[in-house]
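The freezer alarm interrupted the setup, so I double-checked each line after restarting. Inputs confirmed:
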Amino acid sequence: MMNSISNNYTEADSVVNKYINHGLLLVKNNYLTIIILDYIKKSHQNDPYRTLVEVIVAVIGLYYIIRNSKKNSNSKTLRVIDNLSPKEFDTLLQEWEPKPLVDALPTDSNGKYQEKLVELFQWKLKKQPIVTKFNDDKISIITNEDPSSEKKDLFNLSHYNFLKLFNNNKYKHRLNDLTRKIIKNCGVGSCGPAGFYGNEDLHYNLEYDMAKFLGTERCVLYGQDFATISSVLATFNKRGDIIIADKLCNVAIQNALQLSRATVYYYDHNDMEDLERYLEMVFEDEKADGVLHRRYIVTEAIFQHNGQICNLDKIVELKNKYKFRLFIDETLSIGALGNTGRGITEFYGYKDRSQVDITVGSLGNSFSVGGGFVAGDAIMSFFQRIGSNAYCFSASLPPYCCGVASDIIKILDSDNSSIIQLNKNTQLFNELLTKKLKTVKSHFIVTSNEKSPMIVLKMSDKFRTKLFNSSVLTIYEDMHQQQTKQNKVVIVQEPFLLEEKFIQEEIVDKLIDEKIMIGLQPYSLQHESLPLLPGFVVSVDANMSTDDIEYITDKLCLVIGEASKKKSI
Amino acid sequence: MHNVLVDETKAYINEIDSVSYTQDQVPLLPPLNTTLAEKRELEYGTLTNKKYLVRQKSRNLQPLKPIKFDPPGILISVITYLNYLIIITLGHVHDYIDYYFNRDKFRGILEQNGIAPWFTKFESFFIRRMKQRIDDCFSRPTTGVPGRFIRCIERVSHNMNEYFTYPGTEQLCLNLSSYNYLGFAQSEGVCTEYVINNIDEWSVANNGPRNLLGTTKLHVETERLVAGFVGKQDCIITSMGYSTNANFFNSFLNKNCLVISDELNHASIRTGVRLSGASVKPFKHNDMKALEKLLREQISEGQPKTHKPWDKILICVEGLFSMEGTMCNLPELVKLKYKYKCYLYVDEAHSIGAMGPTGRGVCEYFGVDPNDVDVLMGTFTKSFGAAGGYVAADRDLINRLRLDLTTQNYSEPSPTPVLSQIYSSMKIIMGDLNPGDGLERLSRITFNSRYLRLGLQRLGFIVYGIADSPVVPLLLYSPSKMPAFSRLMLERNIAVVIVAYPATPLTESRVRFCVSASLIKEDIDYVLRHVDEVGDMLFLKTSSGIGGGSLDGKPPRWNIEDVIAKTPEDCKDDKYFII
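Predicted 3D structure, all chains:
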């Protein structure tokens, strides 16, 4: 037995020896080994120091590798979880109390509910109007507060659809028939992203039509106006690029600035001197650095917050002087500004859009079908189609939206009577409103430009101090504190809700009794990173008659006058 | 007066039909000259035999087995990398030559008048030298309904896809490209009638953001219906699916929160989370062990630097992954969620309507109570043939979001036709409208998905995904096989979608078949025959059998006739699939 085992050992030994010898021979006789050995020999003969240097380099290299691997293993042991026993982890887990996913009700910064806030919040939710019927220009609404009582046939002044072509007697049937016809031909949805069979002939043709309409080389369609801006700005910006934006830009732009990762400077609202100061600063900085970054001026045509119109002439002059690109958000102004609805450039008398590098507009407001678009030069459009997330990763617009929008462009091209009418109405409305507001000693001020069809009214600061014991400064400070705390989730809405409630009860509700529907400006307070104040919107549209405007301004001023007389609440 | 207007309108509409076009623009094509019956057949094929229906079964909380991805083999991997190497090298050589001898071509990516280019030479390299070479396989213009057949507008590529011309002809292709899972992309039938009727009653035009005065009774009714359908208390409908995700997370997450996200999550989720400022930690696709490890690590570690505990941890997954055809392992996720006090967010963009015995999505498919998932998000673009998306959750939460969400306050609302399409198609799936139709659609898509998947696996292709998923990705690996496959399929009148980096890992280029309920068994036969032929030409049959298609573990290489003869029956049996 023993013998056989030892026999086996010797046998195995000899086999191993044989293989080792064989292996050594292989190594010795290997062509590669011979070359290497030869090389070492020769280099040693020629330059003995070189061998020394090479050995030292090899040793240092090895040392580095070992040190780094040690470091890595050290950092792994630093993790807390490795030092915890399962039991300890369980207690840790038990002690951890995550916050609720969404605070169902507004809380203060300590996480406590304030009864008054909760009440206000629920009131605001219930006050949301729901349209029950469209009757030409009139609408009927109910609210969740009182679903049984329907307020019928109100003048609709709470929208961004300034042209109201779908209610225009001349085009109503044409547009509705076209919608029906396209749905009968193409169905409703497009069932695919633009890159994969989602873009139909109607999409392409709207892109051609829109580019021709605006006077740009190309145009790209998006599924929603709000998502367009953040997607396109993020495509053409990365770290190091520079954006100079207006302080009062809307939330879509603010989101875009956040996503773009660029360096952002804010200039005072519509203050061209301030803008120039920043432009000069950036221009000089870049010159000194010697690196050329993409630089943009970002502004809105009609500002959503206050209805002001940007000073395009000056901006274009500055942009050319300091070599910046210009980005304009025309969400509200396409179809509403200019003699044929071509937006801010036409309003300022430019022949085409060559001065505006990126135009973002909405098909959801004056075109009132839905969707957004970006117009600009061919190269930008080409890169956008692969780089822009909202274009690549989402389904394209329903085909009927495109067909109808194309037709609306044709209407605007051939017959601009509705825009002329809109401009006339805007002028008349503004004239009457300012005149009548003076007579009633109004504490509400029109903040919008007199050419803007969206009229925004906000409370005067004197009145605010009297009624709510707060002023612009205290509100800004309050918001600023909350925003610096980054407690986005538990933001207190107090500076707003009381004031909004006042406007709602004293103005909006009373106007509803007079058969006029106006709306509070909608806000997502916690997403606004810039100061703002509550107000209400009165939208002028092309279908109003002079009598309507007389009646509406009369009632509006009457109600505002009443509200302005309030001493306290 | 009124009559005159109507006549003018008609004349105008006729005029649009005969509009002339230039060759370098996509022409507007007139509707097909067919009878109503033919049109219906083109949009939604009539079922040829009752045999070709399969009801999906609920898994009754049984979790998924770990997925086995078939490895491509060393030869394929080497070829793929070599392929990229050649393309990139050639691209740089081209760039070099063009830069010195053909500067005109470079105008767009060089500095001009002191203004930096939109994209630099480096940033645009992938687009110019790789994507543009196969641009003819993307963005093919179509017309009409993307139903069973899709009408592709023919185009001629010039100068390496620099521009296209359009001769004005069209090609009728079998549609395996649209997300028309339940076949609701129709221009005839109950849904369309409902939509048309609602247009007469409600204005097509929208009326500003939801919180201004954009909410109509239709919105309220549709939201109620959707909430009931997915099994949640309330929901919010938005007008775009991408935007639903991209503008959702910033309403309740901040930098003290952690999002644990599947590595293959959709770009919209990534955008949304980035906007919220929350920390993000990815985990390996569908790897529940890795997820648990990560959770334990993060809970014990807390926030970086301060080591304070996280405010909340949200696990983000997709119900059905659009590029893989795999599903999230919901029962396991729910267990982990409760064990580690996290919140669970499931994006059902592809699964709602298509998965589950009655189309109610992943929760129903796994037999999980929808209340165990905190937020269910989905889109209407896919199964319902409409547009937009929804977020469904508890009533308190939704009420809070109604005032907070940016999309509610600033973007346009869903228009009437879209809402009507959602309402009517959902009613059909629920069986309230046109009884029997919804069930047939659900059974047809399940049969079609199973048949196509098992058929391809048996032929020897590497196919990802679980049995019932309507997304059937076939792996091509090598980037140059993508355009070859797409062009060869188009020659055979089949429209398919090819996807590559950045939507997939660099080496896993694939073709994605999107199965629809509107296809009939004979259509799938046709597809299988042609894919079989093309697969031989392109050397695609490389599966080893561990990913499915063979019971004995040997590489399956069935004959096409055997596949078509046996698979329609076999595909009803779970034992042939790895699930």
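Quick read of the result. Chain B is about 40% helix and 15% strand.
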